[in-house]
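Q: Got a minute? One more chain.
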Amino acid sequence: MTIEDVIKEAAARGVTGLPEPSRLTHVRVWPTASQWVGEVGEPPHNETVGEGMFDTKDDAQEAALKAVAEGRSKLLAVLPADLAETAEEWPAPVVSAWDA
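A: Always. Here it is, folded:
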């Protein structure tokens, strides 16, 4: 099952407080004038991570991937056991980056 499928199934079973799926599956990293921004999610559900600005592309990507990992951990904590078992099947987050 995909994360999206798991969240839909959990919602159908009455689990509340579930995250927007793309915040657990997509990371974006892009440059500003002198720093980098890390985001999780897809528009219109995207949000910046950390303080929003990082000195390097790698730092921004690392922070965004950490936010995804933390979000996935929180999701696992509220899922019924049979759905939580599918976590091994979930693919790594999609990482999109734009170079300066």
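A: The beta strands are 26-31, 36-40, 47-48, 94-97.
Q: Perfect, thanks.
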